[in-house]
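At this stage, I put together one protein's amino acid sequence and its backbone structure tokens, which the following lines show:
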Amino acid sequence: MLKKIGDFFKEPPAKEVIQDSEKVASMYKHWRWRIFYSSFIAYVVFHICRKNMAVALPVMSTDLGLSNTQLGILGSTLYVTYGIGKFVNGVVADRSNVRTFLPTALILSAICNICFVLSALFVTPGHVSFFGLPSATVLLWLLAFFWGANGWFQSCGFPPVAKSLSYWFSNSERGTKWSVWSTSHQIGVFSSVALSSLIIGKLGWMGAFYVPAIICIITGIWLFDRLRDKPQSLGLPDIEKYNNEPVKEAEKDEQADLSYIQIFKKHILCNPIIWMLAIAYTFVYIVRFGTEDWLVKYLVEVKGNSIMVAGWKLSTLALVGAGGAIVAGVVSDKFCKGSRTPVNIIFLILLVVSLYAFSVNPGGTPLLEALDYVFAALIGVFTAGPQMLIGGLCAVESSSKRVASASIGFTGIFGYIGAALSASGTGFFVDKLGWDGAISFWMIATIICVVICILLYIFEKIRKKKANA
């Protein structure tokens, strides 16, 4: 049984390379496009079974009697398991079949969403005790368990995509393709928020979990048909060879017959740049998930918006923010000659300004409400750029293609430590200091990230100078 499961997920062997150049060109054209749009759609759909919680929070709080701190604890369970799982599954994904690994994870995530809702149906808060525990406590831990399990399967989404983008697109085009693909995150958040807002209005907060679950199951089945593993599994040559591009130094390890563990140690564990990127990523995620998960509740409680209006403001943050990822990638390619850190510094400074402007805008009038949409969009733009670069493209470019998924997973651990701190920390500051305390928490995290990026820029300059010498 275990052998059959292992064979199902095992990376397919490389086929004999096709010698017909016209057939190779035709296949590459077909499969690159197919892999790209399938990966894009997959990650969009992953989000509708993850970010639905952000819209459901205010109604869940009332219906289930959960405090902000308890909601923060509940939300942080996904981020803890996601962070750990992103690293573990990153290592696994490097040696797994993308075609089976990714769809299976999406379907299992959908099942966790269904179990999450069933928990609230079978256990309702009250005076009933289970094994000496109040039913409210039992319910909280059941919800936390299934939401944490959801986080683990959600963490299986990004690593195989990173593997696909690394193997199907060469160095000269990867930055642009990666930045375009990364907009799937923002579109996913937008789709989830818009869909959940609509569903909650019609079916209640539980519908925001089981309807997306059905969509994810159908998409998972479709992805199994669409996806394939590396080009070599189809008999195609390596992408750098096909595009006649030199292999960068980090990727020469593959030709030196080093083991996976040796490459992992050299390019991840003993790589100071990866460590600096990972630490910076922690603070990016404090802001990213602070705004994504709590903005609806903030707008309802502080600015008196309805859930529908608050949901649309959050949707603006996500949808317009998608452009921030593309701008960051293009600017770093075209104007900074591939240097990503200066773009990160500029974006993060503007993010602090946008957070402050959003918090001091009182809303209430048509003009001020319009400004809320503008400031929310700017928060999305200036968060999306560093999010895409620091823990994604920069991590891959600072390591070897052979450990692309693992490098993403490594920075992902730190990112989701930040996400867990964001969930529990934001809830804590709201309960203790009000929403001004939460906003300050996000702004301070951004400022710390700016400082780390400045130190990283100095380190990169010194390293480059020594290398040239």
Observations:
- The first strand starts at residue 129 and ends at 130.
- The chain has a mean pLDDT of 84.
- The longest helix spans residues 435-468.
